[in-house]
Amino acid sequence: MKQRKQETKRLIDENNQLRKQLNAENRHYYEDLLVYMRAHTLLRDDFIVEQDLLAILQDLIDAQQSGMNAQTYFGKDPERTGSEMLKAIPRNIADFAWFNLKLILMMFMIFWLPQLTRPVTKFDVGNLLIVAIISIVAVWGVEWIIGSYAFIHPTRMQTVAFYAGGGLLFVVIIGLLAFFKSSWEITLSSSTVLVITSLGLLVGIVLPFFHRLTGQDRILYFWSMFILLLGFLSRLPFLQRFMHAKIDLGAWQWLLYVGMVVVPVLFVLTVWWIRRRKK
Fold first, then answer.
1. What is the total count of domains within the chain?
2. Do residues 125 and 35 share a domain?
3. Last residue of a domain, one of 51, 71, 91
4. Are residues 166 and 40 in the same domain?
5. FRET label pair with 178: which of 110, 134, 151, 192, CA 20 to 30 Å apart?
6. Domain boundaries, position 215
7. Which residues on adjacent β-strands are paired with residue 121?
8. What's the pTM value of the predicted model, to 2 decimals?
9. CB 31 within 8 A of CB 70
10. What's the confidence (pLDDT) of residue 271?
């Protein structure tokens, strides 16, 4: 699986370089097709999709050198071309399951891991599952919307509705995390948290020697290591009182709550920006 993932990344990198050879008209045509196909690959084999996209690109470059444009060579309906190609690509349930598992792990790192720094660490399994399911469905929805509008320029109202819906979904997730409590709650003792954070830090120290961290991986890695370190220090007897001291900003206490919302938003935007730069 790792070798196939590396090959897929190589195909994407090669695609990014070769696209620079297209003129503006052909590049617009091809990139719309690229967005459409990549947005519809949740249940498809990414490697085969990237192989097909690269083959199309190479054919288009040859056609361009012969004086033909993309519409003449591939037709005026790129959506139909992409749809027919996707139908020929086999489904890959294993990659789909792994994709969703990674989303759940990411949710765990971002939202549950900070619980290890609290004086009393409670792990609400039901809360995490509901938030994870909503987040996974939301990602599917975003992928579907991106694919649906690959060849259509959305109106201003549709764009506003999309961002408003995303903002509302974010508020719902934060609300569930803050206020929803299920009966599937596990309370961890200080000694258990100390063991978990110690093992987590040990794995984190060794990990870079066995796995090359990319841009997004680095953000999650340093975020997790920072939280694990705080959790570890907060369980040391001589630091417990200091680490668990209540922050009282008086009239400016509201800034603390604003920061608790703004920081995760900035984190998500940073991950999105890094992914966009890579593409």
1. 2
2. no
3. 91
4. no
5. 192
6. 95-278
7. 188
8. 0.65
9. no
10. 67
